[in-house]
Prior knowledge:
Blueprint: H1 6-10, H2 20-25, H3 32-39, H4 41-49, E1 60-65, E2 68-73, E3 76-77, H5 79-88, E4 96-101, E5 107-111, H6 112-128, E6 137-140, H7 145-157, E7 161-163, H8 170-180, E8 184-188, E9 191-193, E10 196-198, H9 200-207, E11 216-220, E12 236-238, H10 239-244, E13 255-256, E14 260-266, E15 274-279, H11 281-294, E16 302-305, H12 312-324, E17 328-332, H13 343-351, E18 355-358, H14 360-369, H15 372-375, E19 384-388, H16 394-404, E20 411-414, E21 448-451, E22 464-468, H17 483-491, E23 498-506, E24 512-517, E25 521-524, E26 527-530, H18 531-539, E27 544-554, E28 558-567, H19 575-588, E29 597-600, H20 614-621, H21 635-648
Parallel strand pairs: 4-17, 6-7, 6-8, 7-14, 8-11, 11-12, 16-17, 16-18, 18-19, 19-20, 28-29
Antiparallel strand pairs: 1-2, 3-13, 4-5, 9-10, 14-15, 21-22, 22-23, 23-24, 25-26, 27-28
The structure holds 5'-O-[(S)-butoxy(hydroxy)phosphoryl]adenosine (WT7).
5'-O-[(S)-butoxy(hydroxy)phosphoryl]adenosine binds near residues 391, 413 and 500.
Amino acid sequence: MEPTSIDALLNETRAFAPAETFTQQANLNDPAVYSEAAKDFEAFWAKAAEGLDWFQPWTKTLEWSPPYAQWFVGGKLNACYNCVDRHAKTWRRNKAALIWEGEPGDERVLTYGDLSRETQKFANVLKSMGVSKGDRVCIYMPLVPEVVIAMLACARIGAPHSVVFGGFSAESLQDRINDAQAKVLITADGGWRRGSVVPLKKNADDALKTCPSIEKVIVLDRMGIDYPVHMQSGRDVWWRDAMEQAALECPCEPMESEDLLYLLYTSGSTGKPKGIMHTTGGYMTQVNATTQWVFDLKEEDVYWCTADVGWVTGHSYLVYGPLSNGATCMVYEGAPDYPDRDRFWAMIEKYRATIFYTAPTAIRAFMKWGESHLQKHDLSSLRLLGSVGEPINPEAWMWYHQHVGGARCPIVDTWWQTETGAILISPLPGLTATKPGSATHALPGIFPEILDNDGQPLPLGKGGYLALTKPWPSMTRGLYGDPERFMQTYWSKYPGIYFTGDGARRDEDGYFWLMGRVDDVINVAGHRLSTMEVESALVDHPAVAEAAAIGKSHDLKGQAVAAFVIIREGFEMSDSLKDDLKEHVTKKIGAIARPDDIIFSADLPKTRSGKIMRRLLRDVAEGRALGDTTTLADPAVVQSLKDKYEGQED
Length: 650
Ligand code: WT7
């Protein structure tokens, strides 16, 4: 992606006001909602919390002792009850909850009644394996209905889940299981991705060699009998066998508002991935409400969020947000170009999807594949489009608007993070005039500021750090087992204020323009990676003495990993070693971390205190003139690297 200059962005003059017909029918169509929320944000969120069913009302809306918030103190509820039971008790029992397609083309529809039955039975399976309230359960599965059932069953009995994306390696899975000290692992024999089998059970077996906390493994038979896996007796149980004996009814555990709902691991700029904690009442309140506000969700909608449940988008806007609203959700297991590049459009046509939520990286791929794939399909059912995961470049926004949305659908560019739990900055589709590339405004009840290094608010037009000055219900309650790192990462730059790690500016009209990460976190195809994780994976290889990884702009992925590597004596700088190193990172972390470029280097640009200057490496990798090199210990290093790189780009 050619980085659009910030000045060009801030001078964006195209604006798309909501159609009057859309505004009239929108869930939120009175601009007074913003001022109402600003006047008393606690009362505003308390009203939103009434959108859930509570077993016991709360006595205090907010207890704020930075960095720790408690929302809806004293209230009791259950997330699974809100996503399943309360719908299964009504006519929605026979409404489709999940419309699922596997990559090979297998199809299943589960009603809220089906979800209720399966979830209760599976909750009983978990209980029979000794899982009780507070025990952590790890889930490592393909995107099949059972992964949703597994998550909801955990929520039902109060066992926090930790979903690990099926694309992660055995080692990544192992780290996450051990950090959470999970008692049970739920996995599958395999899953489908671009026509190949992802060997989930095999990876799990490798991971479990050193995971002493795991007592039982439940294995879903996704592939069928001709895909053999090893089952360890006494530890491993087939999903189907366990379900056969399970009783039909399992009551919902009444959870305190602040009881842990789940852990989700994400990369930071240093160290191992961190376990982001989300609790029940505040999280459920905000995902429930924002699904109605941002996606304008209605009873009749067919809602499709293309994210995997391994990421927070899948948690908040594939599972907890839409299901707590009783929505009909499409779910698709596989790749967008399998068997052909029109798979998504074929599914939208087939199921008459009305709301479509995807990532800029996917939109840019569709753009590259061309309009002919869309023209084969009737996309007229769509009425709203969403984007998430990284800044969307204006060209991709315009293409999405014209070719997917038929110039008729509002686009919501939604900014948020694993830590924020729910969307914080986004247009309200019935109220906000959108500008291509801008996430526009904070949602009502959310208070972002752009601050300078010292915490002073910056005037419109000036770039700075995005921070949140007031608490919100779905904010993370911390990092599992590491309160110091929590404090250090988010709350030490500005005391009492949440630091997002993103750079941003506001234009003359007050619109927010997100500029990407300001820390050593990179965003590859909408997924968060830390440069340090990639570096650790590289130096783990016998040929590598030292490595520096950076995110380099990439046409489709937004950013791609590039790594500068110093090799040890006795190894040869060859193309086959490059391939070997790429493979090594894939094996250690997962395919998303695979470097696009490996650049052999004799030295790395460092400051006099020994810190690698990644900014200069980015200049080299992106072919720019070198920025300020005066703080370097030896400025010649980076110049020779630049000369060399220009000769050996691959
Ligand atoms: C980081 C969070 C939120 C779910 C997916 C990613 C970037 C996310 C946008 C957007 C510009 C965005 C930020 C943020 N980001 N959405 N609409 N515009 N940037 O969750 O892995 O926790 O990553 O993604 O840099 O900090 P995540």
